[in-house]
Design a protein that fits this description.
Layout: H1 6-24, H2 27-40, H3 45-54, H4 56-69, H5 73-80, H6 82-115, H7 123-138, H8 140-169, E1 192-194, H9 202-208, E2 214-216, H10 222-232, E3 251-255, E4 257-258, H11 269-273, E5 277-278, H12 281-293, E6 298-302, H13 319-326, E7 334-338, H14 347-355, E8 362-364, H15 372-378, H16 384-397, E9 402-404, H17 416-420
Parallel strand pairs: 1-2, 3-6, 6-7, 8-9
Antiparallel strand pairs: 4-5
Helix pairs in contact: 1-8, 5-6, 6-7, 7-8, 13-14
Length: 432
């Protein structure tokens, strides 16, 4: 037997290797598996173990058997007995329809957008079937093997080039190939972008990221539900309850107010999250009850200005009213809240924290600065003495209250002397 060179060995193994990788590794391995890990953590670890025990040994030993015996794996099953062969046939028949349908639908969707054939409907699937059938009928498996090798090699090279370009030059836009304009309603996937960057500059974001279907501010789920309803033909109104974690911790955060009406000079929240929008007491109570049914014992009520809750609602409820309602829920043991603003910390709220058994006697009350001039420049709408008086009223109602605050270091224009005024808040007798 002549000794083959490394180059000859590479030629003999490269083609089959690319062919095998192209047929054995797909979207489910590269995308869906990592997505499942990000979504469910180790919750699906059992299925991964099962997949490795039953699936990948067939990949390994089936190819070895066919290579060593020069027969197919079907012939091997037949030698083990008719029941093995029939079992293989039944499993194949059960799985092939699901796999073929899913792969066909996804492939058809990509081809629709690539060739702009969204108006042909079911004909896109028929054309795809005819093309694949023609390749197998006229070109036989040799043509299919050659085509898959070309596709696999192209994907390999393009992936390596993309990696190298991003590694050395970073992401860059190219005008060599203009973006494809497509009808988003015909696409099989929905890409949603949510966060503080979505807001006043949504139009600019839409031009920059044309492939994004819907843009949403934090906690703004309605646009996504609407587009899902449009594409599925389902009226989602009244069908979607509180959006709570599937497996919450013993403690959980519950947003009760979004946005802010204040315009503190150091804060961008009003520009990004918009004006203040409070949720109704009934909606919040339903969410807390849902969390309690999942094992939650403590909730923290969230808001950029949490003690301003209810000012924008028709019936003008306040944070004290919300405390009274949530305190009645069986199963909840502790209620916390943040972040408060000195301007909205009323005596009614202070007394509610002192009186309601489940509301923790703890307040996060940012002062931000200790000098009146700096507070004015910050647009905080209170003075140093106002803050000191407020703390005095809080301690009078709750002698054992736990208080924490926020102080901004290095506010523009602040002098060292002005900053040192913050230390006066810590004096034993601040009124002095």
């Amino acid at each position: 037997m002549n000794k083959i060179t490394e180059l000859e060995w590479l030629k003999k193994t490269l083609g089959p290797g690319i062919l095998f990788a192209s047929t054995a590794i797909g979207v489910s391995h590269l995308v869906q598996s990592t997505r499942a890990g990000a979504s469910y953590g180790f919750g699906l670890l059992f299925f991964i173990i099962i997949a490795n025990l039953f699936k990948y040994p067939f990949f390994e030993f089936a190819s070895r058997y066919a290579n060593s015996t020069e027969t197919s794996i079907i012939d091997g099953y037949k030698k083990l007995g008719s029941w093995v062969l029939w079992s293989y046939l039944i499993i194949t028949l059960i799985s092939m329809f699901f796999i073929t349908s899913a792969v066909g639908a996804v492939t058809s969707g990509f081809l629709q957008n690539l060739f702009q054939t969204t108006g042909y409907g079911i004909w896109n699937h028929i054309i795809l079937f005819l093309v694949c059938g023609s390749i197998l009928s006229f070109g036989k498996y040799d043509s299919l093997d050659s085509l898959i090798k070309i596709i696999g090699f192209t994907l390999l090279v393009s992936t390596l080039l993309a990696f190298i370009l991003v590694l050395f030059k970073g992401p860059a836009s190219s005008t060599l190939f203009p973006p494809i304009e497509y009808n988003k309603t015909d696409f099989l996937f929905i890409i949603a972008l949510m966060g503080c960057m979505v807001g006043p500059k949504t139009d600019a974001l839409a031009k920059r990221f044309p492939y994004v279907d819907v843009f949403m501010r934090p906690q703004q789920f309605d646009p996504l539900l609407e587009i899902v309803g449009e594409r599925t033909g389902v009226d989602w109104e009244g069908c979607v309850g509180p959006l709570t974690p599937v497996r919450p911790d013993i403690t959980c955060h519950v947003p009760i107010i979004h946005g802010c009406d204040l315009m503190c000079t150091f804060c961008i929240i009003p520009y990004r999250r918009g004006r203040q929008v409070s949720r109704s007491i009934a909606e919040i109570a339903l969410e807390v009850e849902t969390l309690v049914s999942k094992g939650v014992k403590e909730v923290t009520l969230l808001g950029q200005t949490v003690d301003a809750y209810g000012y924008d609602l028709p019936d003008k409820p306040n944070l004290a009213d919300l405390f009274a309602r949530l305190d009645q829920i069986d199963g909840i043991e502790r209620i916390r809240f943040l972040t408060s603003h000195p301007k909205f910390m009323t005596q009614e709220i202070i007394q509610a924290v002192a009186d309601e058994p489940k509301v923790c006697e703890h307040k996060n009350l940012p002062v931000q600065a200790g000098d009146d001039e700096i507070l004015y420049e910050m647009r905080r709408q209170y003075s140093r003495q106002d803050y000191i008086d407020l703390v005095g009223r809080i301690r009078e109602a709750m002698p054992d209250v736990a208080l924490n605050t926020d102080i901004i270091v290095g506010f523009p224009g602040e002098t060292e002397e002005q900053f040192q005024h913050c230390l006066l808040y810590t004096s034993p007798s601040p009124r002095d």
